Structure formats: structure tokens, C-alpha cells
Amino acid sequence: MGYVAVKKTMSAIPQDIIDQENAKLMAAHQADYDALGVRLARVGIDIEHIVDRLMTLEVGIPSWGMVSGGTRFARFPMPGEPTHILEKIEDCAAVHQVSGLTPRISLHFPWDKANDIDEVRDYAHAHGMGFDAVNSNTFQDQPGQRLSYKYGSLTHSDPATRAQAIEHNLECIEIGDRLCAKGLTVWIGDGSNFAGQNEFADTLDRYLESMKAIYAALPHDWRLFIEHKLYEPAFYATVIQDWGTSILCAQQLGPKAQCLVDLGHHAPSVNIELIVARLAQFGKLGGFHFNDSKYGDDDLDAGSLNPFQLFLIFNELVYAETRARGQFNPAYMMDQSHNVTDPIESLLNSARAIAGAYVKALIVDRKALREYQSSNDVMMAHHCLRMAYETDVRPALAMARLRKGGAIDPMMTFRASGYRAQKARVRKSRPAIGGGII
To answer: Domain Xylose isomerase-like TIM barrel spans what residues (predicted)?
Structure first.
């Protein structure tokens, strides 16, 4: 999704450090890989085919996820975190270099606005990175902004405020086009906190009117991702609150409009894998923001709390890919807030979880699963999924990383590189602020 093959001329982490760390683990890794290959071969699975499939998986990385996150109470910056977009690119490149999974950066405007867009693009390309969908921001007021979004943006009752929000999205498309991105993600916080504050139908009408203006400005090869969220900052009613409203709007707008699923934007206990299946079945599953949650939009590391759910989601994605026969191309991205961990380490943690869930979904015995489903053998159908989920696929993940020039053990290699300490010596410190996500 937006990745342009580029010739890498700069490295965030010296390659010889990665090679040295790999050399220490190579013998054990090869033995583990061979053992996994034998185990998979017993059930008719070629490990080389699985690794080849894994090497095609690409997940976007959020620029805003490269700094310490926070809550509405506080944010605690760490030494060496980036202070501007070029430094964010360096950190994104470090994640991709050791993980081999994250070749695209998703920028968020105006957070990532730069005076020289060409410099940003060229600096990313020099690090071997491309760009994912760009993100607009009409959920905050910016310094010098003429009209406030306190009471809404694309759905505001004032036409001038809506026009301002539309114009910002058009600017994001223009910037993204120069970066060679191929999509725009629109998430709005518009809604109401009190009954009677807005008419539900009127706000959705205004949303569609605004989005049609944005949709009309898309380049021919772009997609428009509609991101829904149950609540927050609106606590009574959110305009785009669930996948049902999202798909209705996407259908109204046209074929380039699709739904984006953030794993933390649902009510507790919602069956997200079912939502995935429904959106994919009707051709409107545009992409994912991977994270994990316990209570709400927690933005924790993907797979850190509910790894089985992540596997079940990828099980539906792999099946949807099979049904679509080449016409299925969701844009995957991580969207996380790292409040108490090093952002790079958390993203490496998530990359491993995502890749692992994907591989486990690939090794599900689908022929047997279909037969058990047809014969209503409930326990054996579930057993098919459990056997795949409980398989230790780490050697396959390590081999895919190794073949891409990455690390057998990304976390330990990153720490051995001394990257964070080196950046702490040369980068300015970010000030601690009272609260906020970034």
C-alpha cells in the first residue's frame, strides 16, 4: 500500500552488528528451522512455501508511534526519542531493518508537516523506506487555525468549519501524492456528549457531503479509508461509531472508499474476526490498525493481551485472500501508544506477534477444516484451529527476517546495537507535557 521500491543508501543500524548477532544464533536457529520443517512436512506443509508467503507480508509503521505515548494525565518522554520527522524516519528504518516487516511509514498531518516534502521523501528512500496511507487530523485545533473543531469538523453545523476541514484533507492528499503514498485515512472525533446536542441523521448527511468532496479529489490509484470508533472524544454518540455506519458510508462514496478496522475501536467482547469476514465478503475491508486492548482504545502492543484473537483475525484474512483470488489487498499498519516502553522495542514486539499470527493462519489445515465444518464435527473443526495456533512458528519468522537481511532475534539485536543510547547523545530532549497521546 504505497510502498515504492527504492535503493537504500543509508542504514539506521550498522549491518555488521546485525550480522554479528545473527552469527551467534545461527547454529541453533538452523536446527530449530529444520525441526519445524520436519514437523510441518508430516502434515503436508512445505516450510519454504510458508516462509515465502511470510516474506510478502508488509505492515505500515506509524510515525506518531515512534515517540513515547501518554494518557490524558501525563506523558513521560524518554531520552533519544525523535523530535522531528527526519528523526522519526530513522527510527522507523531501524524497526524495519531488524524486523524485515515494516517498509512503509504512515505520516499524520499536521503533526508531521515539513517545509520540504521532497527532503522527507528522499530521506525515507535513502533509508529504504516508502510511505503508507497519510492521515488527516481534524480532531484537534492547531496553532493559528481560524475556526475551531470543538463541536465537530467534517460534520460541523457551520459550513465554513466543514470547508476548512475538507481543505485540510485535500492538502493531505496533495502532500501524500508527492510522497508516493496511495491512500488517505480519515478518522474524526465528531459526535455529541449530550442527548439533543445533534440530530443523528443530519450529522451523517453532513459527513457524507464533506467526504464526497474529499473522495472527488483522490488520485485515480488512491483509496480512502474510513476509520470508525465507538466512543471518545464523543461519549454519547459518535458519527462514525461502528463498522455498519462505516460500510454504509463507503458504499455511498464509491469503490475507492473502504473501511479501516482499528482493533481497539470496538465495544468490549465484540467479535472482531466476524467484522473482518463481513467487510471482506463485500469488498470493503480496506485495512487494519493493529494493537491490543483490555478496556477500550488502549493502543497496547499487538498480541500482548489476546494473541488468540489476533490469530483468529488472520485466519479470516487468509480465508478472505483465498476467496478473493488475488483481488484482496488490505493495508496493514500498527497503531499503538507506548507509554512505559521504548517505542522501537514495542513495535518489534508487535511485528513478531503479527507475523506469527499470519504464519499460524497459513498452516491451518483448510481441507480438513472444511470437511469437519460440512459434517458438523464441532470439536474437530475447533481442533484444526487450535493445532495451528499452538504450533511454535518462531523459526519460520526468524528465517524470513534473516533472508531479508534482518535479525534472528530483533529485540536482542536492537539492544546490542546501542541505537537508543547513541540517539540520546545526539538528539534534543522532548519536553514533558501535561497530557495527551503524543
So the answer is: 107-299
